[in-house]
Amino acid sequence: MKKIAVIGLGLIGGSLALELKKNTWATIYGVDKNAEHLQKALDLGIIYKKADIHIVSEVDIVIIAVPVNIIPNLTTQVLDLIKNDTLVFDVGSTKLAVCEAVKNHPKRKNFVALHPIAGTEFSGPEAAIYNLFTNKVNIICEQNRSSKEMINKAVSLFENLKMRNVFMDSAKQHDKHIAYVSHLSHISSFMLGKTVLEIEKDEKSIFDMAGSGFESTVRLAKSNPETWTPIFLQNKENLLKSLEEYIKNLNQFKEVLTSESAEDVFAIMQNTNKIKSVLAGINN
Questions:
Q1: Rounded Cα gap, residues 201 and 204, in angstroms
Q2: Per-residue pLDDT tens for 201-237?
Q3: 3-170 in CATH: which number?
Q4: What is the rounded distance in angstroms from the CA atom of residue 30 to the CA atom of residue 188?
């Protein structure tokens, strides 16, 4: 019988708790500074028991699923309290800050810096669902700084969730790449939603005219600002570079549209259609 503590019971933490309840015999303890979330997680059967931070001294695995600005200090605090054979990992979408915070900790070997790339636009314990991680990718960074035992435990845990583990040596490289393939898309969605709300004051017209294309493009704009504000700020350097490139492409498209060059408009879209084969290769 194992014991697992999940700190932060939102979409990712809650969904992990559900999966681990289903796939293991572990007792799942929930920790959350929001008392309402904690009680709701218990009522929904996401966790077995409510607890506070001190439970980490008794468990075999600690999962940290809180906003990224809280993760570095909290991870250090957790490492101070754990047993010598406890696995600790966070699920934040930025990795450099936490890796820097714990790099000299005596129990750094117990920590695995990872990022399961999965999610929806919903938040809170009620957003937790089964199969969120199925056939998705889990990125593990700085494996050489974790013990082989802890890496093997983390790999096994996520393989049991039907995730594919991918290793990256550098947390800095992770944050650079994730800025383009995840964080930028969230900014794009938020800004499209903002633009439409500012231009079209009649909300009923938006509802009546919005097609599936608009709905799918602005889906991410429904994401929780409490989660994404610290992500954007923590990965600011990489996001500013990606935004410069994105804005350059938007301005280029604006210019060819202004010139009414059908050939150039077509060429830009045709070249970008290559993304279909790229994504098909990833998904296969």
A1: 9
A2: 766 666 665 666 777 888 899 999 999 999 999 999 9
A3: 3.40.50.720
A4: 34
CA dihedral 52, 16, 144, 142 (to 10 degrees): -90
Separation in Å, CA 59 to CA 3, 47, 62, 104, 142: 5, 14, 7, 23, 24
Partnered with residue 7 across adjacent β-strands are 31, 64
Phi, psi of 105 (to 5 degrees): -70, 140
CA-based torsion, 202, 203, 205, 211: positive or negative? positive
pLDDT score at 68? 97
Q: Which region among 156-165, 205-214, 232-241, 267-276 has the lowest average model confidence (pLDDT)?
A: 205-214
User: What pTM was estimated for this model as a whole?
Assistant: 0.89
Q: What is the dihedral of CA 141, 145, 149, 151, to 10 degrees?
A: 0
Quickly state the pLDDT bin for 144 (edges 50, 70, 90): very high
CA proximity to 93, closest of 282, 244, 232, 225: 232
Q: Which CATH code, of 1.10.3660.10, 1.10.10.10, 3.40.1640.10, 3.10.20.740, is assigned to 174-283?
A: 1.10.3660.10
What are the boundaries of each domain within the chain? 3-170, 174-283
194-203 pLDDT, tens digit each = 988 887 776 6
Token readout for 141 is: 């960074």
Question: Which residues make Cβ contacts (< 8 Å) with residue 40, sequence separation at least 6?
Answer: 9, 124, 125, 126
- At which residue do the structure tokens 């709905």 appear? 215
**Per-residue exposure over 197-231, b if at least 16 CB sit within 10 Å of its own CB, e if not:** eeeeeeeeebeeeeeeeeeebbebbebeeebbebb
From residue 103, give the alpha-carbon distance in Å to each of 121, 125, 163, 206.
32, 31, 27, 49
